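Weekly sync, protein design subgroup
Attendees: M.S., D.O., the rotation student, P.L. (late)

Item 1: inverse folding check
M.S. brought a backbone from last month's batch and wanted to see whether the design step gives back something sensible before we order anything. D.O. pointed out we never logged the input encoding, so this time it goes straight into the notes. Structure tokens as presented (460 positions):
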């Protein structure tokens, strides 16, 4: 099982570090504490049943490293969750914190991860991340499509837009519960500490009503085979650029957008599907590509098309809505623009309605000229975004017109005077480089200014 839960910080009523002194199972803790969300927290020593990374619960430090600083997720109540640097000894003004393996900080994946050999390799994982507005909980059990190395988990959390993320304990100790999604990942071993969240349920309704879309930019920078015969066009660059353009339109219209590879890095097909399937109630999955005909040279096959797993249902409604806007924009489409292909991996393994768009053939010279053109990309991205917005039943929000840069204002007489007295050496200003023009003037200063003016006039 794989699940990612995005919780608005404003929806958190309370957060707590639960100290599992009774070695209770996750289901026992959930029944006892009644949280809305629960997740494994710190790594621990099973023999001593004590954490081995810095943890503070309700004002009490459970463990603090005597030598090293640790970055931790910390809070007093929950909605105020933020990153803090816990110094040696554990001193921190926050009431609660949990520090483990740091994955992401200031929005950047950490170049080197620090963890023991016993937690390396591909296994089930738990991670907690923060965006500016959300608490993100990631859970994946051993053997699932989300089982990964710490480095893969780091890259995944960065792609989710985390400005800060920490890997929690994992493997057989993956314990994750999300009440609203019906998720109960109960590990074969109990967790020594857990983070529990209780939510303000009055605030959940607006969140659930927000439409969600995943944009999947096809291929990645390591795939150089998908290109035009003359090598002037690469599919991975086009797909990523189109995802950025479409995202800007959708977010302006109030859609919550997740990209499968926002930084252009390598992401497997299974990971792309896991990202989509981890978003509860995802409204639409859109995979972006360009097509190719057989052979190694140029071909006559050209035009836009949209692939679906099968006919009917929400996916066909979405495809037809997008197609209508693409046609209205004057884009050349195939004679049969909607194609059914149940063999395509992302269409087969994504649970939400899914479409795969082929924007033209990068083996056709006319199509390649369009695919490389910024104006064509802008027009098609806007058309496809319009189609998606129409399918979601939302109103299209036009872009604000670009404002011409304001003409620089003419300097005032006072500004001209200030510049002149400085350049002429009449008044040099203070040591900080400022003139402090509103300060009072002493008789000595006035005398000095008069003397310098007289020198300029040749009177002394």
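Designed sequence read out in the meeting:
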């Amino acid at each position: 099982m794989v699940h990612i839960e995005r919780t608005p910080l404003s929806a958190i009523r309370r957060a707590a570090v639960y100290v599992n002194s009774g070695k209770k199972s996750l289901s026992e803790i959930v029944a006892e504490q009644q949280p809305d969300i629960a997740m494994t927290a710190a790594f621990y020593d099973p023999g001593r049943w004590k954490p081995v990374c810095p943890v503070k619960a309700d004002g009490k430090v459970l463990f603090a490293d005597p030598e090293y600083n640790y970055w931790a997720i910390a809070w007093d109540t929950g909605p105020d969750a933020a990153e803090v640097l816990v110094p040696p000894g554990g001193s921190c003004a926050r009431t609660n914190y949990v520090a483990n393996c740091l994955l992401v900080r200031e929005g950047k994946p950490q170049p080197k991860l620090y963890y023991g050999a016993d937690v390396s390799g591909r296994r089930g994982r738990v991670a907690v991340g923060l965006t500016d507005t959300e608490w993100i909980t990631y859970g994946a059990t051993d053997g699932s499509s989300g089982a990964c190395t710490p480095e893969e988990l780091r890259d995944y959390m960065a792609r989710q837009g985390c400005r800060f993320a920490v890997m929690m304990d994992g493997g057989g100790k993956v314990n994750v519960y999300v009440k609203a999604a019906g998720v109960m990942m109960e590990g074969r071993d109990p967790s020594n500490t857990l983070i529990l969240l209780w939510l303000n349920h009055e605030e959940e309704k607006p969140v659930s009503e927000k439409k969600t879309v995943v944009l999947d930019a096809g291929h990645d920078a390591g795939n150089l085979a998908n290109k035009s015969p003359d090598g002037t066009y690469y599919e991975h660059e086009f797909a990523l650029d189109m995802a950025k353009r479409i995202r800007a339109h959708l977010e302006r219209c109030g859609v919550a957008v997740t990209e499968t590879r926002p930084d252009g890095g390598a992401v497997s097909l299974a990971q792309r599907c896991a990202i989509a399937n981890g978003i509860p109630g995802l409204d639409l999955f859109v995979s972006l590509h360009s097509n190719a005909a057989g052979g190694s040279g140029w071909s006559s096959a050209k035009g836009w098309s949209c692939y679906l797993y099968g006919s009917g249902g929400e996916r066909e409604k979405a495809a037809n809505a997008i197609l209508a806007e693409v046609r209205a924009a004057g884009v050349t489409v195939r004679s049969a623009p909607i194609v059914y292909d149940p063999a395509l991996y992302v269409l087969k393994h994504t649970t939400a309605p899914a479409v795969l768009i082929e924007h033209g053939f990068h083996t056709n010279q006319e199509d390649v000229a369009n695919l490389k053109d910024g104006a064509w990309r802008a027009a098609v991205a806007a058309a496809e975004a319009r189609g998606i917005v129409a399918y979601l039943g939302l109103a299209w929000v036009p872009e604000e017109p670009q404002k011409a840069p304001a003409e620089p204002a003419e300097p005032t007489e006072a500004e001209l005077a200030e510049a002149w007295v400085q350049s002429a050496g009449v008044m040099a200003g203070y040591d900080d480089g400022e003139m402090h023009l509103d300060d009072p003037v002493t008789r000595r200063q006035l005398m000095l200014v008069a003397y310098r003016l007289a020198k300029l006039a040749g009177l002394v």
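Discussion: Residues 235-252 form the longest helix (18 residues). Residues 203-208 have pLDDT under 50 and may be disordered.
Action: P.L. to compare against the previous round before Friday.
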